[in-house]
Amino acid sequence: MAAIGESTLTRLQIFALLALAVVCGAATLHEAFVAPEASFLTSGNGAQWIGYPFVATSDAVPVVRDNIPAYSFTKTFEVAAVPDRVMLSARGLASIDLSINGATVLWDPPLESWREIVEVDVGSKLHVGTNEVRARVRNATGPALLQLALRGDDVDVETDTSWQVSSPGIPVATATRANDTQLFFDTFIMPQPRDAFAKHGVYLAAMFLLFAGFSKLAQSRLAGANLKSLPLFVLGSVTCYWLAVFVVKISNLPVMMGFDIPAHLAYFDHLLEFRTLPDPVEGWASYHPPLFYLLTSAVVLATDVARDSAAGQVVYRLVSFASGLAIVWCTHFFARRYFRKDPIKTSLATAFAGLLPMNLYVSAYVSNESLLAAWLSVAMLFACTALMSARTTVLHFFAIGAALGLGITTKFSGLALVPVIAAIVAAKIWMLEGDDRRAASRRSITAFAAVITTTALVGGWFYLRNYVEYGEWVIWNINLPGATTWWEYPGFHTSSYYLSFGESFRHPFFAGFHSFWDGIYSTLWGDGLLAGMVQATTRHPYWNYEYMVMGYWTAIPLSLSVVVGVGALLVRAFRDEDMQVRITASFVVLIILVLLFSVFIVTFRVPYYAQAKAFYILGATLPLSIAAATGLSLIDDALKASRAAYLRVPLHGLVGMAAGVIVVSFLG
What we know:
By secondary structure, this protein is an alpha+beta fold. It has two domains: 50-177, Galactose-binding domain-like (Jelly Rolls), CATH 2.60.120.260; 186-667, no CATH class. The protein has helices at 6-33, 193-221, 225-228, 230-248, 261-274, 291-303, 310-315, 318-338, 343-355, 357-362, 369-388, 394-408, 418-432, 437-470, 495-499, 503-506, 516-524, 545-554, 556-575, 579-605, 621-640, 648-667, and strands at 50-51, 60-63, 70-79, 87-93, 95-100, 103-105, 118-121, 129-138, 145-152, 155-158, 164-167, 170-174, 176-177, 485-488. A hairpin with a 2-residue loop joins strand 11 (164-167) and strand 12 (170-174). The longest helix has 34 residues, at 437-470. The protein is globular, with a radius of gyration of 28 Å.
């Protein structure tokens, strides 16, 4: 018997949803308009932000904090008569010195943040004839940018593209408007959608007709025992496909292909040579928790293979590949439990996880992302078992905590889900297990504490080591103690970067240079950053990029199904008659929102083109698959119950065609 009524649960869910919206909204507003550490440009005094013209690149720019270059912005203007009052308002990203006709402009008190606008009357510093305003700007975390206006008594000067900008060691140039929605030149080297469709359109049409015909046949013949065995058939087929991709393609990939691969290999080299963990300052990836590197190094030691050998290419990728496949299996068993063994929905969720491009290509490279996502998927599976059970046990708490602990020992981004999963399990106990409110409260607190404590015992040692040795619990390669810092372009963001979308369909590869959402979409449905290679000419030849570029278009129905599914899960979270299903649906939606927001909010503090990557939330593969299965089933059921039932066949054809394009992209 439920401990609380449905109306009480609904009120609690509404409160939790509003609280989440308020927290996320407040965090976004704080980063955009308050935090001095976030380089988000606002309109301010209405003048343009300008900077030195740069070409979009993914290269890191090293910074020596004792020798930050100054960029001088200058503008000459004419004054017909000595003005009584001219107000100068300016700010620079990040520090600024101003002068009018060589005279320094001072203000009091000193600035506490680059966001503060300097306002001072400079009318007395102007004279009849030619005048010059100069601003010297320094920035250790991005490009030097300036926003300035002179207004009053027939003087109206603003920063625009008529200003000159210079810095020691580089030529004087005309300033350019600060723009973080550029295009990376190498995107034009890659296959383009229009050309790919013209070349392979016939094959896509054949795929569509094949799957549409299969759908028509299956609707009449796939039932009963055949339908019940469908999930295992799909799981087996997806597993065989993964093994085929591994044997035919992944095993032939050179070890040096992958995101930040030199840094990952340096970590392995240190472990294999010294048998100790590297210091964070020793390399680009040395700050990472060690589990992925320890497991891979153990496999290397056990097999005693040379890195550059054919066997070495396989061995170095075993942990990543096995982790990606484990995500698929976890999704399958989660779906079986949540969908009450519904064969169609379980099969759809399994297929989605198994054919999701970001899961496939990340698992092909030497990376800790797949292992982190696998541990998070295991934790979600254990959490689902706890949420869908009549009564949780101590074993549930320890299993969830152990999986989360292994996750945070793989990568620190797993920390974001630890309190979320612990809180959901604790909330379920408090709301549904028993009628004694006091006893339920005690068990709820115990459950939360057990998950957190187990997580800390399994994975907390690494963070304690960081604090003891370096004074920081979490160390990143942008704040390494005593090391040279760096930044990447664009080094700032504007509202256009977050409000734009569509480049993924015109020029999919490197589309993240154009907007946040293009960055997510282009790395979700394809290897949009080409394994992290700096140039398109250095990409590996093992993916079929012509099919991959078409996949961004054919994935539109799948993307819409995820959106519809999230909405349907949210409705189910409030209306389903089964209280356990309601809480589990809330859990799935919450995981998706928290992980997506975690990537979104970080881009304010780390405003780099390569930061908006979907696989930073590879751990969301499982809940995204549940959402996709829910959405596709809902759309199909709605069509089946309407006068437009005939549209089910083309819908199935489109979904099958999307799956076929993905299959060929990685195996063709």
